[in-house]
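Narrative summary of target 7.
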Amino acid sequence: MSSSIQKDCVATILKFLEDHNFKETAHTLERESGLFFNLEYFEELALKGEWNEAEKYISGFTKFEDNKLHEYGKAVEILNNDLKVFAQHNSEWYKEMVLLITVDDFRKHASLSKYGDTRSARASILREIKKAIKENPVFLGKFRVLALNSLRVSNLQI
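Modeled conformation, tokenized:
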């Protein structure tokens, strides 16, 4: 099946699923096909703090290796080479940075639990994430815009 036909077919199925309120199934198809990225859905997950689900969704479109800005090794290198100078002035602050880079879930760290208004913090972080997603060539042509003729989809009704 040609890529164009496959993309049209998936788009038609997604429209059908949405029209019949099968939202989770639609998002699963988006993720598994990797053809259409629903930025609004991703934003909804992030604003609700459902980071695991957001990460699972975005993993259908890009892999860790595709995003050199997020490499753990690079973070450690920066910490060792560029930020070590801060250890001389404030060793506690430096230890805190090391701890945050090495923990599995930094959101549970005591010093970050008092961050304040969670919704505002998430919205701020999300603006940066959305910018990075829109600039990432992996997502080029995958942003979901379903402008299908509803007559086409109505032919699929059960």
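The CA atoms of residues 22 and 67 lie 31 Å apart.
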